[in-house]
Target: Helix-turn-helix transcriptional regulator
Amino acid sequence: MDPYLKLIAASREEYSTPSYYWENRGRNGGSQWVFQRTLSGRAFLETHDGDRRDVMEGEMMVFHHGDGSAYGYPLEFRGVYELSFIAMEGELADSICAQIFRYGGDVCSIEGLGETVRLFDEILERFENRRFRDRLEMAELLYRFLLAVSREKNGVGRLRDPVAYCYNAIEMRHVNPITVAELADELGMSREHLARSFKERYGESPGNHLRRLRLERGRAMLLGSSLDVETVSLSCGYAASDSFGRAFKREYGVSPREFRSQSGGAG
Model:
């Protein structure tokens, strides 16, 4: 799968009858994640396990094509349901969304003037007017949106479950030059205590988890793009290509350039 986030569709729509209804089980659309805001009126989302939620103004439903959920215009509602949505795909979307949302559909509240709404509207406007300079700008904006959604949905997660917060932070921010020590400072924990608690729960240290995600991303980029090694290393959260090269060779036994040459990757 393409390592970059990709915007598949985005639109504003309105409906006024229960004929607006979709089932995601068996639905075509690959591995798309859909973020659908209620601008006015209301909709419903029924999760794969039968839970049903109204999705009111100021809320957003999130689902994955094929996840078994269903959504639409409520039978008992009278009025106009106005919505906007964006649909994206990519390895990073799968990784981040799987940590933020329940598989099978979820609903979250979003602040009307907050970063999530601002980025959502910017993505929609750029898509409608074809204003993305290139796929990298698109991927960057989608990534920032996912981070904003995560912050809004899990704002209290740091206090409730610091170890899970650390895991999610690594999943979402491994492309940035963060360190485990910085995450420990955010959580008000010692690095040693965080590492011990993290390994007890997830079976590996936070440092190993961070390094593995970065190297997997780097490997995919070496195979799927013609970007030079320095650019790849920066895109994977390494401050210098030398550090990336050493870590890559320890993991895969060859340097990034040797790996690309041997595997026939782009460039």
Remarks:
- The longest strand covers residues 6-15.
- The chain has eleven helices and nine strands.
